[in-house]
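User: I'm preparing a small set of examples for a lab meeting where we compare how different chains pack in three dimensions. I only have the primary sequence for this one, and I'd like the structure in token form so I can line it up with the others. Please keep the answer compact; I'll paste it straight into my notes.
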Amino acid sequence: MSLHTSTSMRFFAVIPCAGFGSRAGTAMPKQYQPIAGLPMVVHTLNAFAGVQRISKGVLVLAPDDAHMDGVLTAHPLSLFSTSRTGGATRAESVLAGLRELLKQGAQDADWVLVHDAARCLVTPAQINALIDACQNDAVGGLLAHKLADTLKTEKNGRVAQTVDRADKWLAQTPQMFRIGLLLQALEHAGAVVTDEASAIESMGLSPLLVPGNAQNFKVTYPEDFALAAAFLNSRP
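Assistant: Understood. Below is the structure token output for the 236-residue chain.
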């Protein structure tokens, strides 16, 4: 797909897809596990394909990925290209995806939405809501869900303290920032950060919190697959 050449605001996507997800207990990388009749990652990609403002996306795979070719044969991608440049950490894979976008013609000032392949319940409406909220923001932001449960800290398997939840949010994805700023932030923060907002925060900036939805959870544990399937099967 050719990239737009106009100077208007442009939006791109990076989906790191190089991990295995050992906590999921699956024989294959969890992003390829079938849910509601499709590999998990296909639900994720379909959500982004439903957002007309996304110019192009990069799906970042592990160099030795043995599964995606079969998925592509059954479910060809139009919006996303693949790049077998994934690293050992999420941050390394996202950096590789950003560099691939720049090689393909994206610019530092363009926006990028980074999303977990395993958040397969995200909807085009949620992605559009993030774009609407962040496109004129000086920093960018992320979907997040205000914490509803009582929060505890632990010491030696016992409750050490109850934490005030009033200002606590669960970070979700997509997370949306300018490509150049995010590239700089990830290079500054290093591979230890677990999301893009943390890297931006390391630069002294405060990302915008955009209310998300409890259904936009990351499929992580074995019991999450049945829950995700139930939600997907209930949709029109």
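A couple of notes for your slides: The longest strand covers residues 169-178. Residues 1-7 have pLDDT under 50 and may be disordered.

User: Perfect, thanks.
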